Amino acid sequence: MGFIGHNGHFQVVHNGNMVCRMYVAGVSGTVTDTSAASIVLYLEKGDMVAIQNLDSGEYVFGDHYSFFSGFLLKETDNIPSVVG
C-alpha cells in the first residue's frame, strides 16, 4: 500500500532479471493505492526471487499491509540420466 502523495515503482526479479513491474499511485488527498501481480516461475534450488524498489527515497507501508508469497505448483525431477 502506497503512502498518500507518493508514487512507487517496483519490480519482481528472478536471479537478477526483471520479470514484472508494478506501479503504486499515491494520489494526494485521502486515497491510498495498492498493486498486485501474479507470476509463475520455474525455480531451481538456489534461485533468488525478490521485490525491488525502483524509486530512491520512496517506500510503502510495512507490517501486514505489504506481503510477498509463493507456493509450489508442481515438483519436477530434473536429475540427469547416468550414462556409462
UniProtKB/TrEMBL annotation:
SUPFAM superfamilies, per the entry: TNF-like
Coiled coil: none
Positions of the C1q domain: 8-73
InterPro entries: C1q_dom, Tumour_necrosis_fac-like_dom
Domain of life of the native organism: Eukaryota
Protein name: C1q domain-containing protein
Species lineage: Eukaryota, Metazoa, Spiralia, Lophotrochozoa, Mollusca
